[in-house]
Design brief:
The structure holds 2 protein chains of 2 kinds.
Chain A (H helix, E strand, L loop, with lengths): L2 H9 L5 H13 L1 H30 L7 H32 L5 H4 L9 H5 L1 H6 L1 H9 L22 H6 L4 H7 L1 H4 L3 E5 L7 E5 L2 E5 L7 E7 L4 E7 L2 E5 L7 E2 L1 E2 L3 H12 L2
Parallel strand pairs in A: 1-3
Antiparallel strand pairs in A: 2-3, 2-7, 4-5, 5-6, 6-8
Chain B lengths: L2 H9 L3 H20 L5 H20 L9 H24 L6 H23 L2 H11 L5 H8 L4 H26 L4
Classes of the chains: A alpha+beta, B mainly alpha.
Chain lengths: ~270, ~180
């Protein structure tokens, strides 16, 4: 396999760690190889962008019934509509039970004294409120269609639904504790577009990262022992040591200690 | 559908499972952004980006899930939204790029734009084979199964030919644009 094939293999993840380091070494010393390396790197980046755009378009085309705000409003309107509808049906049922006799055998069996109920004849508005008590009395023997069912309005709280309340329990505190910058108790600020690339510094317990770190997720990891803690920066599957006392802008140094890398990977995977 | 089943389907590159997941957690993830000074459009973008990060990690076999899917995606959303807020803050501080940086960046952006055009000229099958292999990091067996190839060797041959075709196409476009000396 010649070196150009090795560069391709480098991006195809088919090389060993040692072979990868050999490629990096060769690339750093030969401008032609560097050009080929950057060419393959660009192809990878373009393939990634094409695929991400494709997936985003696919997700974008999925219709989420309504927005969060709209859904809340929709639920409120639906509740109001149900209450109003039930009330109207109840009222209509009571009125029709007395004023528009339905010609069924059952209705013919209604005792005459039930028609004299004062609330139903003279106070139709109250009938609405008392429908649950009065309807069975008047319509029990007429027709089942006119029996209004008492409905308790369902009060919708903002964003409250079974999915977010019950099915999915989000340990928000855990997430905040495990989130990269929070895990180490420091805040992070990215500095993109400066003359520094892949550098960092600490000022007032704030980590400043210099370079284009917004292409992928980064993590700040912390290893603690009894007396001290050590911070590490993780980006694109690689790890770098951080020194809290580093006030000067300094390049990020990649960690090569295999044991430490395995330990950091394990911490990262468990975050 | 159970969590485990969704995760297994996503690991196999099942895009329907991704769509189901998108609908399932949309409101919960959007709420995170909306209740933290974001608009609904921003919430949607962040959630889509987070889901794609999750998808890439799962399909490439680099993800061992130790928490619920929702918890994992939620933490990605949180991270992405924090970065976006940092970016906005920087913009509001009017930090400006140096001209050298801008030139370098635009040069690369132009190269990538050309490559993307070439990828789109390759045709559906080649585009899928290459993106599945290089972005999703799927194995040849998975690609063969997903694209209905006869066997793994067919997928390997296809990938080799498509990559060669893409390299040639890009290099021919580059020489027209004088990127390569």
């Amino acid at each position: 396999m010649d070196i150009k094939e090795k560069i391709e293999a480098y991006f195809e993840r088919t090389l060993t760690e040692v072979e990868m380091r050999d490629v990096e070494e060769a690339v750093s010393q030969d401008p032609e190889l560097k050009k080929e390396f950057e060419f393959q790197e660009d192809i990878n980046e373009a393939l990634k962008e094409v695929r991400v755009a494709e997936l985003k378009a696919q997700l974008e085309s999925i219709s989420i019934t309504t927005s969060i705000f709209d859904q809340t409003i929709f639920k409120l309107i639906t509740s109001i509509a149900i209450i109003t509808g039930v009330s109207i049906i109840g009222y209509w049922a009571l009125r029709s039970g007395n004023e528009s006799p339905v010609t069924t055998e059952a209705q013919n069996e209604i005792p005459l004294d039930s028609l004299d109920h004062p609330a139903l004849i003279h106070e139709p508005d109250q009938a609405q409120a008392e429908s649950s008590k009065e309807v069975p009395e008047t319509t029990k023997k007429t027709t089942p269609v006119t029996t209004p069912t008492p409905v308790t309005p369902h009060v919708i709280e903002e964003f409250a639904d079974e999915e977010t309340r019950e099915e999915i329990s989000i340990p928000e505190n855990d997430i905040l504790e495990n989130a990269p910058s929070a895990s180490a108790g420091i805040s992070v600020e990215l500095k993109i577009g400066t003359q520094y690339n892949f550098h960092y510094q600490f000022l007032s317990n704030r980590l400043f990262l210099f370079g284009n770190f917004n292409e992928e997720l980064y993590d700040i990891l912390e290893i603690k022992n009894d007396t001290e803690s050590q911070l590490f920066f993780s980006y694109k599957e690689k790890f770098y040591q951080l020194d809290r006392e580093q006030k000067e802008i300094t390049p990020l140094q990649e960690i090569t200690n295999e044991g430490l890398i395995i330990r950091l990977k394990s911490i990262k995977d468990n975050q | 559908m159970k969590e485990k089943e969704i995760f297994e389907r996503i690991c196999r590159g099942d895009e329907k499972a991704l769509e189901e997941l998108y609908k399932k957690y949309y409101r919960m993830m959007a709420k995170l952004v909306i209740t933290n000074s974001g608009s609904e459009q921003e919430a949607k973008d962040i959630y889509q980006d987070a889901l794609i990060v999750f998808w890439q990690k799962a399909t490439s076999g680099n993800l061992t899930l130790t928490s619920k899917i929702s918890t994992y995606i939620y933490s990605i959303c949180l991270n992405l939204w924090r970065k976006e807020l940092d970016r906005k803050k920087r913009l509001s501080n009017e930090e400006k790029d140096t001209p050298e940086y801008m030139d370098m960046d635009m040069d690369r952006a132009e190269r990538i734009r050309i490559i993307k055009n070439c990828i789109n000229q390759l045709g559906d099958t080649c585009r899928k084979v290459l993106t599945y292999y290089y972005y999703e990091k799927m194995s040849m067996t998975e690609i063969a199964s997903k694209l209905g190839f006869a066997n793994t060797d067919t997928a390997k041959t296809k990938k080799y030919k498509c990559k060669k075709k893409l390299d040639e196409l890009v290099k021919s476009q580059y020489s027209e644009k004088d990127f390569l000396d």
